[in-house]
Amino acid sequence: MCGILAVIGKKEDQELVSKLSKRMSHRGPDESDVHVTESGAILCHERLSIMDVTTGKQPIQGTSSAWMIHNGEIYNYKALKENELKDHTFRSTGDSEVIVHLYEKYGYGFLNKLDGDFAFVVVDGKDFIAARDPIGVKPLYYGKDAEGALWFASEMKVLADQCVEFQAFPPGYYYTPTTGFVQYYKPEWYSLEECQEEADLKRLRDSLIAATKKRLMSDVPLGVLLSGGLDSSLTSSIAARLLKEKGKKLHSFSIGLNEDAPDLIAARKVAEFLGTDHHEIHFTVEEGIGIIKKLIWHLETYDVTSIRASTPMYFLSKAITEKGIKVVLSGEGADEIFGGYLYFKNAPSAEEFQKETISRVKRLSTADCLRADKSTMAHGLEARVPFLDKSFLQTAMEIAPVHKMPKTHGGVEKYILRKAFDTPEQAFLPDEVLWRQKEQFSDGVGYSWIDSLIAFTKSQVSDLEMEMAASKYPVNTPTTKEAYYYREIFHEYFSQESAAKSVKKWIPKWQDDKDPSGRASTTHIAQTSFVEVAKS
Questions:
Q1: Is 369 assigned a catalytic role?
Q2: From the annotation, which residues make up the binding site for L-glutamine?
Q3: Annotated binding site for ATP
Q4: Coil, helix or strand at residue 255
Q5: Residue 518: its pLDDT value, please?
Q6: Residues within the annotated binding site?
Q7: Active site residue: 2, 44, 163, 195, which one?
Q8: Helices 390-397 and 201-214: crossing angle, nearest 10°?
Q9: 254-313 pLDDT, tens per residue?
Q10: What CA–CA distance (Å, rounded) separates 119 from 153?
Q11: What gap in Å lies between CA 271 and CA 83, rounded to an integer?
């Protein structure tokens, strides 16, 4: 995990570009380096050392003239070295270097050989390729300045005041000067007609175990974000068992307003059941409100649900890095894949249900992936997401929607995932946790968190300001005082229209109340009754 910056197309001031790269120093606190290629391209790298701590310095040179900067992890790098690249000589022992060697061997057509999460730029003379992973787990922005030079960076804050126009780099695409943007990731599950597989519970279970196992790859200490919900509890359960086989103990981390927070209560049960080394973190409403401005600078969004959920994640990430942990597993993606949000209970048909899951997964880069990456990397912590593994996605997304849809009056979201891990031969989780009602992260830390945010922001924004909101902010006009408050802060940092357009708002579907809190759904019910209904 790192921060990358590439400027291609003009003789730029190296000192200025290096200074701009330092705006991302939180992403790479371990090392900072820059290289100017023979063609004048400037490549900067802010490094968080995860793999190959001693020799994995970037930018990385290929066999001769090609240079590369990379943010992310390539989980199949050893297999690539032993097979496709067996004749190549490597300068490092880490995962990143395989990218530049694949470019040297295959040109542009190697992206589907990579199994991992990535954003990278390879420069070879006047030729170059920039690419982003299939789902957009890792962030990447691109823009063009007044002189026509192209800029690529992990965070918008690096290029926003340098480029006349900019936007997020689309996930699943690569860009070259000769081809422009090319979509390399076109899975069959993009099509409704292909999502008709029977529910193979063993295959689903084995696929998630494999996705989690590969994400334990690390040369530094590793932990897990444990909210006590189904998604993080499953990854914790799998990781704890895999590490135990190696004689290691998993560190788990949870956060809430106090010890009675719904997530903390459930996480405690999971940690005890799994035998993890568990850590609980508390924060106050006042502390949360106090860091919102700094948080929006890190997140680069004004989306309400992203800010609500990122605040506790920001505090949790800080506490984790202070304990010497650099990598954590997280449960992002499961709600989108399996229709886990409570509003999915109201889907009018199987077809509409599946359309919404596909749409949500394709937009993860603007929501949960953005939140998970930037709130953790604000403190130099890498979050890995097993549910967004390319192979697991194929397995899960191609299951026919009738097998995924919520059952009857209980609104049992992610029913098929629960059934896959409700096995008689092995108890992955306590029964009451496996069938626990969905609590969105910003709710689970304590219901008073969102309630207090709404009350505070109402006191900060006048009725007159709301009346003028459409004229001041014609793009994504804020419709509540909370949204207006966040938009004002965002505008202070990123006043460009391109910045405003880069944000996509997360809005629940099929419910009258459009507040993104899960508690706004009419299917949100008491935990005790939910477990009874879910199992029926």
A1: no
A2: 95
A3: 225, 255, 330-331
A4: strand
A5: 57
A6: 95, 225, 255, 330-331
A7: 2
A8: 160
A9: 999 999 998 899 999 999 999 999 999 999 999 999 999 999 999 999 999 999 999 999
A10: 9
A11: 40
pLDDT at 532: 42
Reported in sequence order, the residue ranges of 169-290 that DSSP labels E, i.e. its strands, are 173-176, 180-183, 222-225, 251-256, 277-282
Determine phi and psi for 179, rounding to 5 degrees: -105, -20
pLDDT tens, residue by residue, 50-93: 656 566 678 999 999 999 999 999 999 999 999 999 999 998 88
How far apart are alpha carbons 357 and 335 in whole angstroms?
8
Tally Cβ neighbours within 10 Å of residue 284: 13
The structure's pTM equals 0.93
CA distances from 525 to 230, 291, 436, 508, 530 (A): 17, 31, 11, 17, 7
Q: Which two tokens stand for residue 395?
A: 């397995």
**b/e sequence 186-225, b meaning 16+ C-beta within 10 Å:** ebebeeeeebebebebeebbebbbbbbebbbbebeebbbb
Q: Which domains does the chain have, with CATH numbers?
A: 2-186 (3.60.20.10), 197-284+309-445+508-535 (3.40.50.620)
Q: Which two tokens stand for residue 166?
A: 């900019």
Of residues 51 and 503, more confidence is placed in 503
Mark 397-426 as b/e (b = at least 16 C-beta within 10 Å): bbbebebbbbeeebbbbbbbbbbbbeeeee
